[in-house]
What does this fold into?
Amino acid sequence: MFDNLTERLSGTFRKLTGKAALTENNIQDALREVRRALLEADVALVVVKEFIDRVSLRAVGQEVAKSLTPGQAFIKIVQAELVALMGSTNAELDLKTTPPAVVLLAGLQGVGKTTTVAKLSRWLQREAKKTVMVVSVDVYRPAAIQQLQTLAQEVGVEFFASDNTQSPGEIATAALAEAKRKFVDVLIVDTAGRLAIDQPMMDEISQLHGLLNPIETLFVVDAMTGQDAANTAKAFNDALPLTGVILTKVDGDARGGAALSVRQITGKPIKFIGMGETPDALEPFYPDRIASRILGMGDMLSLIEEAERKVDKDKAAKLVHKIKRGKRFDLEDFKEQLKQMQKMGGVASLIDKMPGMGALPPGAANMVDDSQFCRMEAIINSMTMRERINPGVLNGSRKRRITQGSGTQIQDLNRLLKQHKQMQKVMKKMKGGGMANMMRGLGGLQGPGGFPGPRGGSFPRF
Ligand code: GDP
Ligand code: MG
It folds into this structure.
């Protein structure tokens, strides 16, 4: 889901890396890209406009936190605004009423209403520990009632039988009475699909609403219709007081325009998303999680926050300075770098959290072994300062002393020296290669795409 949007946005952020600060000028390109990405994702134009304004307002002049790159700072803003756009928090189903709490579903034909009744039933039983009764007032489509009965059996909830000789109003009244009599917690009412412009059908559902007095009136809408989903929801809301939206077929929605447009256009929260055809495929809608999925960053955000906390940017900057002055990258520096990487939770955990790691050849992540960090640090600790600054003096007896002192093998020491040499070469190349490269070599983060790692080749391999 949200594939295209993800791709477009991560490209945008890559371009922003290496910028010194967020200014009106340097975020223009990024903003334009975000705008284009949102439009391509079929987000409604008014929503895009306001979104861009808000991001821009927040970004310009924003002080970039010490430990972040401008690209990361920008991502954080976009993420925060995406979350706000979708309503900030999960809007829970409101069931706080004298039972039965009636949930009325409405929507166009074929959007997934009946399937959603089954999904909601299962969710209510399993997650909310509620007893559920379902009923269909779809007397128009042959086999619609039968379809619900089958699904009700599958998820094991009470099914209130109805047939198409009855009127929807009759069925609703009888089902409500039965639900009361049986003390069920929730009565879910499935309705026939209809168009907002079909006046008799809209009158019918208004009447049902009056009879049932539902605590939740949910508009079920197909995510694949993009911004149209938001517009039809709005049209329905004008005739029927909706309390929320359920977005279906999000599993097939590569773009995300519906998820991003609904809240702002209708003022109604998305409460659940349907992620497949089976009764299990329903998730509460969490704006922050969706925003992260859209940005395609796995746990990128938490990683950025971790970096903010843990990576000592001053130390890194000192090292950069030293290299720029032409000083060599000695073993003491190497040790410092290893420490920084460890602070970040080790290579394995970094790789875990990095987006796009699916692209790595299988097993590549395992090639990096954290325990090696400790061993390497121990080796360097057993050296004198002179040896650390100038490893060239290491002869056989010195090496023996060091490996004995650190409880390691001569091969470990030799490997470390080799890796240090490689790093030195990388560092040399980076001299004048700009801050971005430098930080990458230091285990600093550069945002998606610019992350240090086996792909970048500047990370020591063990
Ligand atoms: P209704 O006419 O609104 O009651 O729609 P149905 O519940 O009968 O569903 C119409 C079709 O959409 C069926 O084939 C469902 O399996 C399918 N469907 C419903 N929800 C989802 C979903 O979240 N993901 C996918 N992929 N298909 C869904
Ligand atoms: Mg149906």
In short: Residues 101-301 form a domain with the Rossmann fold fold (CATH 3.40.50.300). Strands lie at 101-106, 132-136, 158-160, 186-190, 216-222, 244-248, 270-274, 282-284. Residues 107, 109-115, 193, 248-249, 251-252, 274-277, 281 surround guanosine-5'-diphosphate (ligand 1) (CB under 6 Å). The longest strand covers residues 216-222.
